[in-house]
Each structure stands twice: as C-alpha cells, then as structure tokens.
C-alpha cells in the first residue's frame, strides 16, 4: 500500500496516468484531503466509483488516531495526543492560538535521540523516525479540527517543528513534509511561516541552507560556551559550538532569514550575568533574536529554575549589548503542554515538566509572516 500523504501532487498525477486515469484527479484528491480534511475515498463524490475503489486498494490513510485532546484553561493552548496506526506509538502536537495566528507544533520522531538534560521527550528515549505522511497528517487533522470548531472560519497559519524529536535527524521526511504542506494545492502554508528547530546538527543545517526553502531556523543553544553546553546537551560533544554558529551564520546569509536562539535559563548553570556577557559576545553583530526560557523543574533532577531577579539581570546585560531578546513565563502547565509529557503519562511514566511549548513558540510563531 502507498502512503497518500507521502506523495507530491506531481507523483500522484503520474500514478493516476500510469493507472489509466486522468491526471487532473490529483488536484481533486488534494482538495478533498488537504483542504476539506476528508480521509475516506468513498466520500469523494466527484470521483467515479471505479476510481474510488482503485484508490482504496492502493493508498493508505489515515496514519494517526486521535487519543486525547486537552485544552488549557485560557483555551490558547491545545494538546493533541496521537496513536500511530503503523505500530501503536504515541506522539503529540500542540495548537497555539495568538491573535489571528494558529500555530501547530508537530513531532518529527517518536521520542528524541538528543536527550537534553531538561527535556521530557529526551527522557522517553528514541524509538523511530516519523514518515512524511505521519508529520503531514498532524497538521491536516488539526486544520480540520479548527475548521469544524469555527464553522470554516479558522485554519492553520503557521507550523513549527518543535515537538517530539530532533527534526534534522529525520532530515528527508521533514523536508518532504515542508514541501507538501507549503504546496499551493495542499494547505498552501507559506514557507516563511514554517520554523524548524534543531539542537545543532551541523550537516543538517548545511543541507537545509541549500534546499531553496524559506523556512525559519531556530537553534536550541542553552549555553554561552562549549563547556557548559556539553553538560546539558549530549550532542554538543559531537558538534562543537563554533561549528554550529558558523553553520547558522551561513544559513542566514544564504536564505536571508533571521535566526532565533533558544536559551533555557537554569539556576547556577547558565544564568549568571557573566554567562549573559559571554552570550552577548557570541552573538555580537548577528541578526537574531534570543528567546529566553526560565527552566521548569523536572522531578528526579536537581536542576532548578532561576528567580525573577536573575532573569531580569540576564536580560539587562543582553539589552545593553543590543541583543534582541524575549522572555515569557510558562503557560499551558495545566495540560502538560511541553512535548513528551502526555505520551509519558500514557506510558505510565512520571510526567516531567520541560520547556513550555507556549514559551518556545512566542517568538518563532509570532515573528514570521
């Protein structure tokens, strides 16, 4: 069986012609699936019965089954827990509403290989990569959910690859899903409204810079130097900070897109004013934004959240060095909004607060249009 949401419009057209059908049916199929959210061929009324039967025998969807929808008390953050029908694994998506923006944060892997010290997804371990179809369907399902809830008045406007997984360690499926979601005949989401977050996979950053995509890139930095970074991010041992920053600079130059650096503030680890001065030096004269995230303690770990005075002092140093930065305290805790938490709960593991999703999305979803 073929995966419908793995296929580009051109590939679908070619398949139709190869099976003695008209290629224009491809756009009809895209309209039914991407725009209307209909995932049953027998409901596609403008297709012949013979074609619908042929499609049913050749293509497979859906790939996801909705397990749980949880809304925050302010209704701005909505968490979706999915079961992957291929193997029963669980992944999550988050919908963030801010003004007229409707941003979907998608997962790209089951678990995460990066294993950052403060992240709930990393505590799960890594199981497998998602297929393009499994990434795309997260957005298609939520787009349909939004449309139904708003009587057709709302749709997904932005997509961020900040859920479970390291996107650039699942490179080809992630890039294909970006092209599929941004295609004019699918959801037509502008690539300038799509953001990819990475912990610093240098070869992935370099590849992405020559893909002829206009997506935003976010680096999970979290430290002003290589020594501290290696303490909290295992991948830092493989990817020196100097090489990562050079790759990010190259990406910005080639794509003409601004860069966002995420920095989780952890008490006694990376939150001292001296660390802020180091960070300011590291990012001097770069066209970028620093998104500061006060750490949420994880049960079983000794890491602590800095107090508000420390956060203010850190920001003061950055502002003094003309480093654009933002900081927002957590929202969405009542629905376990950090990636990986619901999946851990369903697996009967202790829920671990990690980087708050609302925090992470504030800049990247609000700053690109």
Structure description:
With 369 residues, the protein is an alpha/beta fold. Helix content is 36%, strand content 20%. The chain has 13 helices and 14 strands. β4 (77-84) and β5 form a beta hairpin. It is elongated. It starts with a strand and ends with a helix.
Count of DSSP H/I helices: 13
Low-pLDDT sequence parts:
348-358, 360-368
- Gyration radius (Cα, Å) is 21 Å
Termini separation comes to 38 Å
Largest sheet: 10 strands, mixed
Largest sheet, order of strands side by side? 3-4-5-6-9-10-11-12-13-14
Order of helices and strands: EHHHEEEEEEHEHEHEHEHHEHEHEHH
Mean pLDDT: 89
- Number of DSSP E strands: 14
Shape verdict: elongated
| Strand residue percentage | 15-25%
Helix content: 25-40%
Indicate the structural class: alpha/beta
């Amino acid at each position: 069986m073929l995966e419908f949401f793995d296929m580009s419009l051109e590939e679908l057209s070619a398949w139709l012609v190869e099976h003695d059908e008209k290629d224009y049916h491809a756009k009809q199929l895209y309209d039914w699936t991407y725009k209307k959210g209909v995932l049953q061929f027998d409901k596609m009324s403008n297709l012949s019965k013979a074609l619908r039967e042929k499609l049913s025998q050749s293509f497979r969807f859906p790939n996801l089954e909705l397990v749980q929808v949880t809304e925050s008390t302010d209704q701005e953050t909505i968490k979706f827990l999915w079961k992957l029908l291929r193997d029963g694994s669980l992944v999550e998506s988050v919908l963030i509403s801010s003004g007229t923006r409707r941003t979907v944060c998608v997962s790209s892997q089951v678990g995460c290989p990066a294993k950052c010290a403060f992240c709930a997804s990393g505590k799960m371990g890594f199981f497998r990569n998602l297929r393009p179809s499994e990434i795309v369907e997260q957005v298609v399902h939520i787009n349909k959910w939004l449309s139904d809830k708003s009587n057709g008045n709302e749709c997904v406007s932005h997509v961020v690859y900040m859920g479970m997984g390291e996107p650039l360690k699942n490179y080809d499926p992630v890039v294909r899903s970006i092209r599929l979601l941004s295609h004019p005949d699918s959801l037509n989401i502008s690539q300038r409204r799509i953001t990819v977050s990475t912990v610093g996979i240098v070869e992935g950053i370099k590849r992405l810079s020559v893909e002829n995509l206009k997506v935003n890139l976010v680096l999970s930095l979290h430290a002003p130097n290589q020594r501290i970074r290696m303490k909290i991010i295992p991948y830092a041992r493989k990817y020196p900070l100097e090489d990562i920053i050079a790759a990010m600079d190259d990406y910005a130059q080639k794509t003409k897109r601004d860069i966002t650096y995420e920095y989780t503030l952890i008490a006694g680890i990376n939150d001292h004013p001296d660390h802020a001065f180091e960070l300011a030096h590291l990012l001097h004269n770069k066209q970028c934004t620093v998104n500061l995230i006060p750490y949420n303690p994880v049960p079983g770990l000794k890491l602590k959240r800095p107090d508000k005075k420390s956060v203010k002092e850190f920001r003061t140093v950055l502002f003094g060095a003309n480093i654009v930065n933002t900081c927002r305290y957590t929202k969405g805790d009542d629905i376990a909004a950090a990636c990986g938490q619901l999946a851990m709960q369903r697996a009967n593991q202790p829920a671990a607060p990690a980087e708050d999703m609302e925090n992470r999305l504030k800049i990247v979803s609000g700053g690109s249009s």
